[in-house]
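Run log // design_07
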């Protein structure tokens, strides 16, 4: 694991990349966090993100929020990390909580109300996603062991503040909570602060802990800019079990809930948990397929099962070939994959041949394998949705579709699967999923604008039209997989512009986009629109989107290497008869 010095040295020796997804980040922290921005930049550079970071002067993290015309708001951040601690709540009473006549609950509540007012001001005046740290429960109380008994009020009251904070996020979807209390527990509450550094320079986060904290922050940034990963491609031998299946035999494979095989067992448990949360699993193994499935079927401690894998390549091809084929089979971009392999030669081959694939190093000591998944900043989602839980079922259904489609021409196949599209307006029920689609969809995405829930809420309040498309067929429900947003540009002249138009890669090739456009244009016309403008902002990944507007009868206004602009009247384009569309507006 890299140390504080490693990151500082890397920042000094690494030229700032010229390419990467831009992101403006504000870090508001009341203590001294020297070099923290440098560490965070290095981590984000590694993830192809080009950050610009604003940190206010020392101890001005709260006054910065109050100044509506100050540097924070002119910086216009995309994401704000706001850290307040118990001293911001109750000042020096944090050291003498019971000297106030025992009314520590009142003091904490009053302090939290002050923080909430500042937080509300920030939420109301800034469109950024705000990541607010909850409060670390102290390790010391003047009551000693009695703090956890019936007379203890300090820790209980602070826990209730943390609970209130969670409830507050229900009112503001663009407010996220960073579990700082959990973080301090994981790294050690007695070690997170070096007392000498604290008293000399108000450094409350030990330099050795800063890289770990920066890695946690980077997870939010990666997800905010659409860098979250959708799938893990796994090697097998000496990666998810110890030993070589073809040579050692099942009885000698290291994998068990105890002793030396426990690290592999726990690693598989963590992979299974990610699978349950919606991350796809796939295999790229240079092996004999018969030997591999024998381990899966007969080893008593295999956690992962064959059916847990959305796709696999078990052969003697190079890993780059296998991974490319897996991406094509799953209809996912290479940049959505994480590749885990114990062999440094294979990892380097993939890094060179497929640089889009995120290929982290694996520890030389297998006991640290379970910690790998915890440290990666690329899993998860900012707004967890029902589609996340159902994703693996949806890919299983896609396997059935592909099997059924063999030997049938495309038109007959599409006519036979009973395609159904349900179209609705954006609402509280689906806005999180729409935001998630903007953050993750790359291939069929006309403008690749990344939105949070609060961004879409603002568009809706400004009078935009937003259509959500739910897709299903005889094999299963694909969920909300398409979205379109149009904004009024000149109401009096009837001019509208399609701001966002996207479709999940899972439902490409079925003309769902035709139905979505038909419904969007119908809504625009009902709103009095007579002219519809649209843009295609070209990216290396949205090749499937190119040509769509022209195919649907839009006239090309202008074009250059980066963008095409179109215009049309909002007349009915129609859609294939094999699709049943149901509008619920």
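design_07 sequence
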């Amino acid at each position: 694991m890299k140390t504080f010095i490693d990151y500082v040295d890397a920042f000094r020796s690494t030229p700032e990349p010229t390419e990467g997804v831009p992101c403006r980040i504000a870090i508001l922290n009341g203590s001294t966090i020297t070099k923290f921005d440098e560490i965070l930049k290095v981590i984000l550079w590694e993830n192809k993100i080009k950050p610009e970071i604003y940190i206010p002067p020392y101890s001005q993290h709260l006054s910065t929020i109050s100044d509506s015309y100050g540097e924070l708001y002119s910086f216009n951040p995309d994401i704000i990390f706001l850290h307040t601690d118990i001293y911001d709540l109750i000042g020096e009473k944090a050291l003498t909580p019971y000297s106030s006549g025992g009314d520590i609950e009142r003091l904490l509540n009053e302090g939290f109300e002050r923080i909430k007012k500042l937080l509300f001001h920030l939420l109301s005046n800034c469109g950024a996603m705000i990541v607010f740290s909850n409060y670390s429960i102290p390790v010391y109380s003047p009551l000693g062991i009695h703090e956890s008994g019936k007379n203890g009020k300090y820790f209980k009251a602070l826990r209730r503040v943390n609970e209130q904070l969670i409830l507050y996020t229900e009112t503001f979807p663009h407010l996220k909570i960073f579990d700082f209390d959990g973080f301090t527990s994981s790294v050690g509450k007695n070690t997170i602060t070096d007392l000498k550094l604290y008293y000399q320079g108000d450094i409350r986060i030990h330099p050795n802990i800063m890289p770990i904290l920066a890695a946690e922050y980077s997870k939010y940034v990666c997800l905010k800019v659409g860098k979250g990963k959708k799938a893990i491609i796994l090697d097998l031998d000496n990666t998810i079990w110890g030993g070589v299946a073809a040579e050692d035999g099942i009885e000698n494979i290291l994998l068990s809930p105890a002793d030396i095989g426990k690290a592999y067992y726990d690693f598989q448990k963590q992979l299974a948990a990610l699978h349950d949360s919606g991350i796809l699993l796939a295999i790229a193994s240079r092996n004999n397929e018969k030997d591999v499935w024998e381990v899966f079927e007969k080893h008593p401690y295999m956690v992962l099962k064959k059916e847990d894998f959305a796709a696999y390549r078990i052969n003697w091809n190079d890993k780059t070939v296998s991974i490319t084929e897996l991406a094509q089979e799953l209809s996912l971009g290479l940049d959505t994959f994480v590749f885990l392999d114990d062999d440094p030669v294979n990892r380097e081959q993939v890094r060179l041949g497929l640089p889009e694939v995120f290929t982290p190093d694996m520890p030389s000591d297998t006991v640290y394998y379970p910690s790998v998944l915890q440290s990666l900043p690329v899993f998860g989602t900012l707004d967890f949705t029902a589609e996340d839980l159902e994703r693996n079922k949806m890919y299983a259904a896609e396997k059935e579709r592909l099997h059924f489609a063999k030997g049938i021409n495309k038109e007959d196949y599409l006519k036979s699967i009973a395609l159904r599209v349900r179209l609705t307006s954006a609402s509280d029920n689906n806005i999180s999923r729409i935001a998630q689609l903007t953050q993750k969809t790359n291939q069929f995405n006309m403008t690749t604008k990344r939105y949070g829930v609060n961004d879409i809420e603002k568009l809706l309040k400004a009078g935009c039209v937003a259509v959500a498309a739910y897709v299903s067929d005889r094999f299963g429900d694909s969920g909300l997989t398409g979205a379109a947003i149009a904004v009024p540009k000149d109401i009096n002249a009837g001019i509208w512009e399609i701001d966002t138009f996207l479709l999940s890669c899972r439902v490409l090739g079925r003309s769902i986009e035709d139905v979505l456009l038909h419904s969007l244009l119908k809504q625009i016309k009902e709103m009095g629109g007579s002219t519809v403008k649209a843009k295609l902002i070209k990216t290396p990944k949205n090749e499937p989107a190119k040509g769509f507007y022209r195919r649907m009868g839009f006239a090309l206004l202008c074009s250059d290497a980066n963008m095409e602009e179109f215009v049309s009247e909002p007349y009915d384009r129609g859609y294939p008869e094999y699709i049943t569309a149901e509008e619920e507006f």
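The chain is about 40% helix and 20% strand.
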